[in-house]
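User: I'll paste a sequence; please echo it back and then give the predicted structure.

Assistant: Echoing your sequence first, then the prediction.
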Amino acid sequence: MSRASCYDVVIIGGGVMGCSIAWRLAQEKQRVLVLERSVPGAEASSAAAGMLVPHAEAHGDNPMTRLMMKSAARFPKLSTELQNATGMDVEYRRSGALRVAFTARQGKELKRPSWASRAKVQQKSFSSAGLSKLESSLAKLHSGVLYPKDARIDPRLFLRSTHLAALRSGAEFRSGTYVECIEQRAKKAEAVRLEDGTRIMAGTVVVAAGSWSALVEGVPLQRQDVIPARGQVIELTSSSPLTDRVIFGPDCYAVPRDDGRILIGSTTEFVGHRRGVTARAARDLLTAAIALMPALGDARLTGSWSNFRPFAADGLPVLGKTGVDGLLLATGHYRTGILLAPITAEIIRCLILGKRSPVPLASFSSSRLARSSPLSK
């Protein structure tokens, strides 16, 4: 015999997206339930590097760049709000990001065309000598570009504080719950049914299940529309801090933590939901990291992990309304999940409350997805 309950909003997925959306909706006095098959943040959110680098990662004056910029601009206020709500410092540090080149050819690739100024990308170029003064821990390099307004955050602290803020605002969480399907009637999402037969009525269903989003029965996505992209990361710990900036080399990136740890990433592999850190990937990341920052050769290897980033066929997130009334998507964020959490939560909040989205959503609609993916080519 199934058991039924009723909520204004049911969110499938308890990562940083689900927690952020739940928090904002609970603040609006919505009755919110988050369903998570493991524990909040057990997947990509906790395994992320925590880069907030829209300037360094901009690839044109386009909707994605504007989305990243708008979300990044929310973090100073957001980090303060979270600390006031939970007492937790999420280690938001606007210490900048640096892209570097070993060769003249790589240096040319760092140069941005005219769109950079239109997209409000702030940057400053450095010669080899200038880089040595800026970052003494770096190897001998040809050139680099500094993005002073980029930042970093500790994603695990961010996830924990957002989860706690959502709880304190009244959102409910159920861990260890497996969703069987989203029930519909007359093209309207009506309920979420769990594997144990529980039926949860919902005014709105939000799918924020990361790389599992397209696998939920009732979601209007093909399986190949959002797929897992495995990323492997290693963690090194230095006896003394080497940098406080995010640094991008040609073959890896380095993201420091306040306590001396440095995360080195990352691979991108389309291998389904196959977990694990491989010896080859660890070797390649270590080699690239030491070439970039020679002092890392004496650092201790203190951790390694892999995660599954939700990758849409065109690399853009999948946000907003679907062809099913009352069913919203917040997935496909790939490598920008932490960065885009604030703006995604605001988008979903506005859509549910009948307000105007803070950004145009046509570029991120599920209807734009081509029926192709790296696995089907």
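The first strand starts at residue 4 and ends at 12. Residues 337-353 form the longest helix (17 residues).
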